[in-house]
Amino acid sequence: MTKVAFLFPGQGSQKVGMGAELAALANSNKFFETADRELGFSLSGLMTEGPQEELTVTYNAQPALLTVGAMIADRLTAAGIQPTYTAGHSLGEYTALYASGALSFEDAVKTVHQRGLFMNEAMPAGEGAMAAILGLGLESLTDVTNAITAEGHLVQPANLNCPGQVVISGTKAGVDEACVRLKEAGAKRAIMLDVSGPFHSELMRPAAGKLAEVLERIQMNEVQVPVIANVTANPVTKSDEIKHLLIEQLFSPVRWEESVRQMLELGVTQFIECGPGKVLSGLVRKIDRSATVWPVYDEETLNAVIEASKEWS
User: Fold this and answer.
1) Residues 167-224: pLDDT tens digits?
2) pTM over the 0.90 mark
3) How far apart, in Å, are the Cα atoms of 171 and each of 50, 61, 200, 213, 236?
4) CATH number of 128-195
5) Identical fold at 3-122+203-309 and 128-195?
6) How many other CB atoms sit within 10 Å of the CB of residue 75?
7) Who contacts 164 (Cβ-Cβ below 8 Å, separation ≥6)?
8) Which of 13, 200, 259, 309 is catalytic?
9) 3-122+203-309 architecture in CATH?
């Protein structure tokens, strides 16, 4: 039997127009309608019309990406494609939990909006930053970030994405200084990311306490499909463990490379990225070039994977 993983992207993949074409399909517009109702504002209008700057603010980007990912997962399962595992990059872990049956869409979209508000309060937009560092080993990178943090400007590894790509996170001053020193240490490139805060760093600890209170109040079910957790890169199914890991996830590195290798070890041969763009598809290919990856972000790509799945057994 073919083992399939649904993958869900995190912040940085958002763009104006996301989900508009898919929402026109039968039964898919309900996700836009439900998100607007639960949040009390027109998230769907922001997603389809912009502006990009407002969409990128974390408390808007998070529910927007979750809404599109949930919409795609729903279309895939309706077409008979059932995941063996799910995984999401950072914010995408909440979409993975929805797809695995742990969270209702209503609870998920409200929770990630609140998560975004807490993250923004912990470090207002512009005061923190993240950057992708290419071509430098984790040990050398950590030596540099530790030194800068010791000098009073916190910066640390945040996303362990694939061989030769680590995202750093911290204060704007810390990330700026790290980009300079890491290139001096041998990094090929340092690319600032289009995000509004220092996610997965110690600066997010204040948000974690507030998120814990929200998670305590919502219904978290035992998952029907194991979710590969960001914090451990291992499958989880128990609701209490899931809640604990979601809190830790706010200030812990996303172990994405390990997560993908775990799914490969578990026998996954088909990876379907559910959301705008192809960021995760690119990372999976860099981790293992033999992996088959399907980015799904519009009607054409949705139909392509549905057609291909007819050959899976």
Assistant:
1) 999 999 999 999 999 999 999 999 998 777 899 999 999 999 999 999 999 999 999 8
2) yes
3) 27, 21, 12, 26, 32
4) 3.30.70.250
5) no
6) 22
7) 134, 135, 136, 286
8) 200
9) 3-Layer(aba) Sandwich (3.40)
Active site residue 28: no
- Catalytic-residue membership of 153: no
Q: Name the one residue in this structure whose structure tokens are 């990059």.
A: 89
Q: Which amino acid is at 134?
A: L
Cα first-last separation, the chain: 5
Out of 13, 44, 90, 169, the active site residue is 90
Domain limits, the chain: 3-122+203-309, 128-195
- Separation of alpha carbons 202 and 197, rounded Å: 12
Q: In what order do the strands lie in the sheet with 227-228?
A: 235-236, 227-228, 85-88, 3-8, 268-274, 292-296
Query: Cα separation of 264 and 177, whole Å?
Result: 36
**Bridge-partner residues for 191, per DSSP?**
132
